[in-house]
């Protein structure tokens, strides 16, 4: 017995030591960035990071300068904060930084989906074909139809009466955008009322998953929540399985159909297809509600911006009417003639988008900074960018960076402004809501047109007001930095009603 106890004890010590090794043994070598392992072996600074990544990085940046390495949960992350030095990282000029490996690790943990060789190419091909250019036109029409369906709920007497209703703005935007996005990509059946009920059900689960996700990724959920997360994952795999959705096949977007067809031709099992669909549901819907919320909130808080958007909308939508309260009629081509709304969306994303871009170092290499400084990077480490802090909030690139200026991305002659400068040098990456380089979001054009359609409908066909007009813009939930679009730390209440039509 005693012997076994000793052996077990020794094994435990060995395991713990092995896990802590990277933190304990590693020393900064000459020419490497400043290294900070924190006080807790293996964990490093993960707690402070999870609590408020923005504040943590701001502090490190002020102390250590533009490049520094921190230990986070057993991995070393080298953050690069100087946007003038982003180019070689994004372009991967030395071919030594890899995006897929990191994405694989995350995807496996969150969706239970083990990435297949080449699925990245399938996503890319399908997205280029159906989420951009001409292929996007059909999808935009489907999105508009679904927005009509969700906003006007046929058979629902509430809206017909055009009286005021109250809701949380965040909940309202997330709910509407999710249901419209889900139905347009994953398909509808002939029974619209049933589809709406089902979409509502999926939304509730999705939102719960969304709330648990950041702490899940940092492995900080309690046992109860971990169990719930497991159940949610199973539920999604079931709800999104091909068999479950057979009758939807017809209404499914070409984008998803194309990807699923290719994957099955490779012999992918139905169970894996469901996990893939779950990943696509998350990628396509996790940011749409939150960004639409910020856009409407900024417009409600800035009457001059709201007026400018309304004026532009009235101009491009001249003569279109709500037909017998059945659906919104809006020429999709109008989306190409809205420079003011485009600037509003770009400004909203500058203030709301806070993704982390990560690459894994494949071989020891050097990082050349714009200043001429060179740093050594170690194989297996991660290189990370957090453009919200280092670009979006840089007062040199964007004067008064915390202020919403709806015309920040407009030239005086009304065209889109693309000239931004840092230290007098023209800067290419002046806003990075979609990531950049090989991993740039393939859904960005769809995302923009979907959000623009939503805002156009809301300001054109609805009266909107904040319940408390003086309520300030709520602070950002500090536990979600780095996960794409930020979320507010509390709700904002508003009223809306369908405008009486004559
Ligand atoms: C406001 C809305 C959205 C934002 C801010 C956003 C942003 C992003 C970001 C930052 C990434 C990761 C880039 C990286 O790792 O470097 C990403 C990946 C992705 N996005 Fe989006 N996205 C949005 C909407 C959408 C929509 C509507 C779709 C599709 C219909 C979509 C599809 C994808 C896919 C498939 C990927 C992952 C590609 C892969 O891992 O292979 N996104 N998005
Ligand atoms: C509008 O102004 C910008 C710079 O202010 C200029 O680059 C662009 O060519 C102008 N466009 C037109 C149509 O005049």
UniProtKB/TrEMBL annotation:
<keyword id="KW-0408">Iron</keyword>
<dbReference type="GO" id="GO:0005789">
    <property type="term" value="C:endoplasmic reticulum membrane"/>
</dbReference>
<dbReference type="GO" id="GO:0006629">
    <property type="term" value="P:lipid metabolic process"/>
</dbReference>
<keyword id="KW-0812">Transmembrane</keyword>
<dbReference type="Pfam" id="PF00067">
    <property type="entry name" value="p450"/>
</dbReference>
<keyword id="KW-0479">Metal-binding</keyword>
<protein>
    <submittedName>
        <fullName>7-alpha-hydroxycholest-4-en-3-one 12-alpha-hydroxylase</fullName>
    </submittedName>
</protein>
<dbReference type="InterPro" id="IPR036396">
    <property type="entry name" value="Cyt_P450_sf"/>
</dbReference>
<feature type="binding site">
    <location>
        <position position="109"/>
    </location>
    <ligand>
        <name>substrate</name>
    </ligand>
</feature>
<dbReference type="GO" id="GO:0008397">
    <property type="term" value="F:sterol 12-alpha-hydroxylase activity"/>
</dbReference>
<comment type="similarity">
    <text>Belongs to the cytochrome P450 family.</text>
</comment>
<dbReference type="InterPro" id="IPR001128">
    <property type="entry name" value="Cyt_P450"/>
</dbReference>
<dbReference type="GO" id="GO:0005506">
    <property type="term" value="F:iron ion binding"/>
</dbReference>
<feature type="transmembrane region" description="Helical">
    <location>
        <begin position="6"/>
        <end position="25"/>
    </location>
</feature>
<feature type="binding site">
    <location>
        <position position="287"/>
    </location>
    <ligand>
        <name>substrate</name>
    </ligand>
</feature>
<keyword id="KW-0444">Lipid biosynthesis</keyword>
<keyword id="KW-0349">Heme</keyword>
<dbReference type="InterPro" id="IPR024204">
    <property type="entry name" value="Cyt_P450_CYP7A1-type"/>
</dbReference>
<keyword id="KW-0256">Endoplasmic reticulum</keyword>
<keyword id="KW-0443">Lipid metabolism</keyword>
<keyword id="KW-0472">Membrane</keyword>
<keyword id="KW-1133">Transmembrane helix</keyword>
<feature type="binding site">
    <location>
        <position position="382"/>
    </location>
    <ligand>
        <name>substrate</name>
    </ligand>
</feature>
<dbReference type="GO" id="GO:0020037">
    <property type="term" value="F:heme binding"/>
</dbReference>
<dbReference type="InterPro" id="IPR002403">
    <property type="entry name" value="Cyt_P450_E_grp-IV"/>
</dbReference>
<feature type="binding site" description="axial binding residue">
    <location>
        <position position="441"/>
    </location>
    <ligand>
        <name>heme</name>
    </ligand>
</feature>
């Amino acid at each position: 017995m005693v012997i076994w106890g000793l052996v077990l004890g020794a094994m435990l010590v060995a395991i713990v030591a092995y896990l802590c090794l990277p933190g304990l043994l590693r020393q900064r070598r000459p020419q490497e960035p400043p290294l900070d392992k924190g006080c807790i072996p293996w964990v490093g600074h993960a707690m402070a990071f999870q609590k408020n990544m923005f504040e943590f990085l701001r502090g490190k940046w002020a102390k250590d300068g533009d490049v520094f390495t921190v230990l986070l949960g057993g991995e070393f992350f080298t953050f690069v904060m100087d946007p003038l030095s982003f180019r070689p990282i994004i372009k991967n000029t030395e071919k030594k930084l890899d995006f897929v490996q990191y994405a694989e690790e995350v995807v496996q943990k969150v969706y239970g989906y083990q990435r297949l060789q080449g699925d990245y190419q399938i996503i890319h091909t399908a997205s280029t074909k159906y989420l951009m250019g001409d292929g996007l036109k059909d999808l935009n029409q489907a999105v508009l139809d679904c927005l009509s369906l969700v906003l006007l709920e046929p058979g629902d007497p509430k809206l017909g009466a055009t009286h005021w209703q109250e809701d949380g703005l965040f909940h309202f935007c997330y709910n509407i955008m999710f249901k419209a996005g889900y139905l347009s990509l994953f398909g509808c059946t002939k029974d619209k009322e049933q589809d709406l009920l089902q979409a509502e059900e999926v939304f509730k689960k999705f939102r719960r998953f969304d709330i648990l996700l950041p702490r899940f990724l940092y492995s900080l959920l309690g046992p109860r929540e971990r169990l719930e997360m497991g159940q949610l994952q199973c539920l999604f795999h079931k709800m999104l399985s091909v068999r479950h959705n057979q009758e939807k096949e017809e209404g499914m977007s070409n984008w998803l159909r194309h990807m699923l067809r290719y994957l099955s031709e490779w012999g992918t099992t139905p169970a894996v297809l469901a996990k893939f669909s779950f990943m696509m549901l998350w990628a396509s819907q996790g940011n749409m509600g939150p960004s639409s919320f910020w856009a409407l909130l900024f417009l409600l808080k800035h009457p001059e911006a709201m007026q400018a958007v309304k004026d532009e909308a009235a101009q491009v939508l001249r003569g279109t009417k709500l037909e017998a309260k059945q659906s919104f009629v809006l020429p999709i081509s109008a989306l190409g003639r809205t420079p003011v709304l485009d600037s509003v969306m770009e400004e909203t994303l500058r203030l709301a988008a806070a993704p982390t871009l990560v690459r894994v170092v494949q071989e020891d290499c050097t990082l050349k900074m714009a200043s001429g400084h060179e740093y050594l990077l170690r194989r297996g480490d991660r290189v990370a960018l957090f453009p919200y802090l280092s670009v979006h909030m840089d007062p040199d690139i964007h004067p008064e960076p915390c202020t919403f200026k709806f015309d920040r991305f407009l030239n005086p002659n009304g065209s889109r402004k693309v000239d931004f400068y840092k230290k007098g040098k023209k800067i290419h990456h002046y806003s990075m809501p979609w990531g950049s380089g090989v991993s740039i979001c393939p859904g960005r054009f769809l995302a923009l047109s979907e959000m623009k359609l939503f805002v156009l409908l809301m300001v054109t066909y609805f009266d909107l007001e904040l319940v408390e007009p003086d309520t300030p813009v709520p602070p950002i939930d500090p536990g979600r930095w780095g996960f794409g679009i930020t979320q507010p730390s509390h709700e904002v209440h508003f009223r809306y009603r369908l405008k009486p039509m004559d």
